[in-house]
Design a protein that fits this description.
This protein is mainly alpha-helical and 73 residues long. Helix content is 60%, strand content 0%. It has three helices and no strands. The longest helix is centred in the middle third of the chain and has 16 residues. The protein is globular, with a radius of gyration of 12 Å. The protein starts with 9 loop residues before the first helix and ends in a 10-residue tail after the last helix.
């Protein structure tokens, strides 16, 4: 819905897709749903794609505290 309203652009979508493409399958559905809503919310709130990418890195560290996982651009 936020994309249709012009709040989420192609750059945001690329960051979010990259994050999920590299996210290990060991992350459960509830955490995936949380991450998706959280990243989309940041994008819709007016964060630039680079800011969403920085936040995705923090989220990655939260979901995978052992440090294994994607490096989001």
């Amino acid at each position: 819905a936020a994309q249709r309203r012009g709040l989420v652009g192609a750059g945001h979508i690329k960051v979010i897709r990259t994050f999920f493409k590299k996210l290990p399958n060991t992350i459960d559905a509830a955490d995936r749903d949380f991450a998706e809503a959280d990243l989309a919310g940041k994008a819709a709130a007016g964060c630039r794609p680079d800011e969403v990418a920085d936040y995705a890195t923090l989220l990655q560290n939260y979901l995978m505290p052992d440090g294994d996982g994607p490096d989001v651009p």
